[in-house]
Write a structure and sequence with these properties.
This protein is an alpha/beta fold. It has 8 helices and 7 strands. Strand 6, helix 7 and strand 7 form a beta-alpha-beta unit. It binds guanosine-5'-triphosphate and magnesium ion. The site of guanosine-5'-triphosphate has 17 residues, from helix 2.
Length: about 220
């Protein structure tokens, strides 16, 4: 009996991602996919950085979660347009999830940040149609994570080492983490941040605005 082998099982997702990218390009929207493990500080860093864009660039957020609207509520408190995408148990967002939300976004935005489901593994495999990926690694997760979860960092243009205010309290070898991140992706930029102390937040805002500008959003 002939065994049929289907390759490129992600083709359907990739097709939707290509359509999403076209949608963003036609409207001059820069799209960023923010990935990281559960609780790595993704929403907290968004809460810190989004107010800086006010008056400079019109941002909106898609929040990916298995359950609850808690993260969307946190973003809505900043008066930033936000849509909660619930995956009903799914461990990652797909391009189709994003596609469904596009027509619900307000007109005239320059930047869309998609906070993916907190998970260091699956989200990395799904192109959402973003222009840029930012990955988050909190110091409380441990400096071994870049080597253990390389896919999370492989396509990141920027990795945020988050919760740096906790460095005095957790064993985290920064030099080792940086070395391992650059081994996974020598082209990435690394930024040490803390949503609590504000460390690196202005630099993150500048980085995002510079990239949005070079991608033609502004
Ligand atoms: N000390 C410290 N705690 C932080 C920082 N950022 C986030 N936290 C805490 O870490 C926990 C998780 O933060 P979130 O911002 O919800 O993390 P997340 O990655 O969005 O979580 P999920 O969306 O559930 O994956 C919360 O208790 C935050 O208060 C930080 O910079 N410093
Ligand atoms: Mg979150």
């Amino acid at each position: 009996m002939e065994i049929r082998v289907l390759r490129r099982v992600l083709q359907k997702n990739d097709d939707a991602a290509t359509e999403n990218r076209l949608w963003f390009d036609e409207r001059h929207v820069t799209c960023i996919n923010l990935l990281g493990g559960a609780g790595s500080g993704k929403t907290a860093i968004l809460e810190a950085v989004l107010p800086i864009f006010r008056g400079e660039l019109r941002a909106a957020v898609l929040e990916g979660d298995l359950a609850t609207t808690r993260d969307a509520e946190r973003i809505a408190r900043l008066d930033v347009p936000v849509i909660q995408l619930l995956t009903d148990g799914g461990c990652h967002l797909t391009a189709t999830h994003v596609q469904r939300a596009l027509d619900e976004l307000p007109a005239g935005i320059d930047l869309l940040i998609i906070e993916n489901v907190g998970n260091p593994i699956c989200p990395a495999n799904f192109d959402l149609g973003e222009h840029l990926r930012i990955s988050a690694l909190s110091v409380s997760e441990g400096d071994d994570k870049p080597s253990k979860y390389p896919l999370l960092f492989r396509d990141a243009a920027l990795t945020l080492i988050t919760k740096c205010d906790l460095l005095p309290f957790v064993p985290f070898d920064m030099a080792q983490a940086r070395r391992d991140l650059l081994r996974v992706n020598p082209a990435m930029r690394i930024l040490e941040t803390s949503a609590r102390s504000g460390k690196g937040v202005d630099e993150l805002a500048t980085w995002i605005m510079k990239h949005a500008l070079s991608l033609g959003a502004l």
